[in-house]
């Protein structure tokens, strides 16, 4: 077997959805598709290129292999997990051009959402959740599931991470992080089947300087940052790239700010939602950087993070916002609308004209009781 | 009377002990193989015998062995899959419990052929007492020079270890078995790489069923060609069938794969017919995972031919009108049985045993169970039947290991052949709680297409 690999050409050609690309031998179909990019790339919920051994579990990246290789052009009988299948020279892969794949993927999305609580309105991951994206792209509007969803108790695993097992899709990524980044894994999958759960078994704290990376790799809101919990919606925060000299990690992070406040620190993500690599090494960050350096002065700011313009996060503009014109008075012949309650009398919030603020609104601007201090900041 | 190769001596008194087994001609095959044959010649004999894996898939054993990678300086392993957890299958239990030395003997020969110096028996946790029987047999074999260093002075070293599982059905899947054997959680691995290249501890490994390995003994003793003369076509040799359900004589039978299904069920030599004068309604011919067949399709194929107890004949017609030999767990159901209830029981089993690694199986098995429970208890809707069909279709083939398929096939076959009964449960929820659907038309002769 080893001899065969040696004999294989260094670069192989693979055709995915009628687009041919040349990749090094040993590349997986998914990574070849990522080189092409765009719609051709299968979604991946459990595969994480920086975690060895990950993938193959969620089955969202299933593709059809219409021809195995140039030498053996027989099609593969079953759909294969593109994240764990290596390309062969002359392989022909069908992803979005295959009805079988689309059908199977819709099935997988339905299965993944079957027991998912769909509590996006209160979930910290909403806005940057891979399951949300997957649901929008491949899901159906309604569910055919008529039974109670399985539920688990929320669990605190350490002072900084909270586990919402209800939301978990059992991608196993966090176990790989614990195996490969920390010296000892203290959590894992208990039980099996649809009652399997991620747990530390006796609610033991996960105490390791790199444990926070579990939050970054979690594709859903199952593992969330307790220091950011319910602080803000991600689309209201402004991501900026920053760095500091950290003795433990690369120190390259994204700060999620509102005004000058740093609400959250995460590792920098690439276009596939994975941690970026620097000099071939994944840019994992340590817990000190993530949870303790929450002042802008701790960091050297590099500039705004590039966010995909389709992402809801990039919708958080404050300047030059177009306010809809008030037309009631015009059409009512000059009459003002009769209000049951003027919101400005109750809430301080609406006294601020957000579009006139130079940056994002922060808690500083809401702290005042009087008009003058809010005017000061304007 | 068919030939018996494996169970011929099973009823000799004290055959479990080494002395009696040896007196009855035991360990002849080890002498023959180690002294007169090279490892490759043993493999060649197995290829000639046409022996097919007895664990369920029916893959030719000789071919499987020849796929084993043999890199220099890397140990190779033989692992015997004794994690017999398929509902309806209990043939390996019988074999190991009554003639444990047959398995040990087969393992020494196979280890010699494959070059495995440390071979393992992975036995299901529930077979606790059999573990002791096997360990005693291994100890006796070791004391008599059949195991250990330099066996029979040929320079071949071999040792056998028994490892108990912890009662998980999934650990009968070969890669999950290897994970469990390594001391990890029994999750199936993603293939490729196959165990023949990267198996136990990352080394080339062959995983075989107990019965397959035991069949090595008659193959070596009589020669592969002689063995291949038994049976029909590609179904060579003898097969152990564990028959259960509504029959007069449940038990383990050795058949030589030349008899018909009808003969197997009704002859006094085998199952002895159905008790209390009831009628045959359905049968699962190969363990719970394989498709269920109604009586009319069980006894005759869709082409009108008599269905035989062979790999080919049982699979005739594909999944549309056929089934599989599987692991030989022959479950017979008479007209007092409810197919919906039965399908629910199986769905519950697969839901409980799904490892939870990949999403279609983890979520789909539980969903199917809940819908089937609704139908069974009179809360089902007509659309649920189509929904079930859609769920099983989306599980099948999309999972990491065959457990997903095994969970989908029984549901698919039950709906395919017994849709009337499902619909009756939906339309008559009250009546369905009080009586069973009965035989209905499931034994009626089918119209045979004129060729």
Q: Count the strands of chain B?
A: 12
Poorly predicted runs of chain A: 1-6, 369-378
- The helix-and-strand class of chain A reads alpha+beta
The count of domains of chain A is 4
Low-confidence stretches of chain B: none
What is the 3D shape of chain B? globular
CATH homologous superfamily of the largest domain in chain B, by name? NADH-ubiquinone oxidoreductase 51kDa subunit
Helical content class of chain A: 10-25%
Structural class of chain B: alpha/beta
Q: Which value, in Å, is the CA radius of gyration of chain B? A: 22 Å
Shape of chain A: globular
Instruction: Specify the CATH class of the largest domain in chain B.
Output: Alpha Beta
Q: What do we call the CATH topology of the largest domain in chain A? A: Ubiquitin-like (UB roll)
Report the portion of residues of chain B in β strands: 5-15%
The profile of the biggest β sheet of chain B is: 5 strands, mixed
Mean pLDDT of chain A: 84
Q: Overall pLDDT of chain B, averaged?
A: 91
Radius of gyration of chain A: 24 Å
Total DSSP helices of chain A: 11
Spatial sequence of strands, sheet with the most strands of chain A: 2-1-5-3-4
Distance between the termini of chain B: 34 Å
Describe this entry's structure for a reader.
- The complex is a heterodimer of chains A (378) and B (451).
- With 378 residues, chain A is of the alpha+beta class.
- Helices cover 21% and strands 18% of the residues of chain A.
- Chain A has 4 domains: 2-106, Ubiquitin-like (UB roll) (Roll); 147-225, 2-Layer Sandwich (Alpha-Beta Plaits), CATH 3.30.70; 234-315, no CATH class; 328-377, no CATH class.
- Chain A has helices at 2-7, 29-36, 99-114, 130-138, 173-181, 213-217, 287-292, 328-331, 343-346, 363-366, 371-377, and strands at residues 11-16, 19-24, 62-67, 80-81, 91-94, 155-156, 161-163, 188-190, 197-199, 223-225, 238-243, 252-258, 261-267, 277-278, 281-282, 300-304.
- In chain A, strand 11 (238-243) and strand 12 form a beta hairpin.
- Chain A is globular.
- With 451 residues, chain B is of the alpha/beta class.
- Chain B is 43% helix and 14% strand.
- Chain B has 3 domains: 18-229, Rossmann fold, CATH 3.40.50; 235-334, Ubiquitin-like (UB roll) (Roll); 339-434, NADH-ubiquinone oxidoreductase 51kDa subunit, iron-sulphur binding domain (de novo design (two linked rop proteins)), CATH 1.20.1440.
- Chain B is built from 20 helices and 12 strands.
- Chain A binds chain B through residues 1-2, 55-59, 62, 78-79, 81, 84, 103-104, 107-108, 110-112, 114-115, 144-145, 147, 169-170, 172, 188-189, 191-196, and chain B through 69, 71, 168, 170, 185, 190, 197, 351-360, 362-367, 370, 387, 393-394, 397-400.
